[in-house]
Write a structure and sequence with these properties.
74% helix; MADS-box/MEF2_TF; two-stranded antiparallel ribbon; DNA-binding; TF_MADSbox; 3 domains; mainly alpha; SRF-like; nucleus; RNA polymerase II transcription regulatory region sequence-specific DNA binding; single chain
Length: 206
């Protein structure tokens, strides 16, 4: 008996849907890997689950690099010539893109310290203000965590010092009691000697 063909519609049962997703995702990733190895093809695969979890595969470099190559390919309408020429043009275009991204990052860095704000629109200024407020809040939260940790360590050190102080006082007290007992014993012996001395002398005289 042949295998029953699954109807192509959304699986309503959540457990069955998750099991099917996991199996088919692994199968798709395996097929992408096999295609890249057997045919020496550049393959990029991105899968998002219904919960937003991402799974990805890239045959060369990483997914971002292959997607960048795809973007450049579409922008030039595929007019990149031979493979060697494609690689050269791709490298040049990618370098240009990286420089553009670097310029954007430099501009954002200046904006974050309050420089070059004239070209920003009201919406961009509001977004920047929100980012700064978020950054300040994170800094403040981090400071509070460090302060709390420092306070906790300080309290522990004070407690240890107090325990050491009590232990030292106990030892000193014990030594003091021993010294007092020894002194009293010496005084008692001296008194006994002094008291018995004259009597012995009188007896000898008799």
């Amino acid at each position: 008996m042949g295998k029953t063909k699954m109807e192509m519609k959304r699986i309503q049962n959540p457990s069955r849907r998750q099991v099917t997703f996991s199996k088919r995702k692994n199968g798709l990733l395996k097929k992408a890997f096999e295609l890249s190895v057997l045919c020496d093809a550049e393959v990029a695969l991105i899968i998002f689950s219904e919960t937003g979890k991402i799974s990805e595969f890239a045959s060369h470099d990483d997914v971002a690099t292959i997607l960048e190559k795809y973007r450049i390919y579409t922008e030039t309408n595929g007019n990149l010539g031979s493979t060697s020429l494609q690689n050269i043009k791709f490298g040049e275009l990618r370098l240009k893109t990286l420089h553009e991204k670097m310029d954007v990052l430099k501009k954002k860095e200046k904006n974050m310290v309050g420089e070059d704000l004239e070209s920003l629109t009201m919406k961009e200024l509001q977004r920047l203000e929100k980012q700064l407020q978020t950054g300040i809040k994170r800094i403040s939260d981090r400071k509070m965590r460090i302060f709390a940790q420092s306070s906790k360590l300080l309290i522990q050190k004070v407690r240890i010092l107090e325990e050491e102080k009590i232990e030292l006082q106990t030892k000193l007290s014990a030594r003091g009691d021993s010294s007092t007992s020894a002194t009293n014993l010496d005084l008692g012996l001296s008194y006994s000697t002094m008291a018995s001395g004259p009597c012995d002398g009188n007896r000898n005289g008799d």
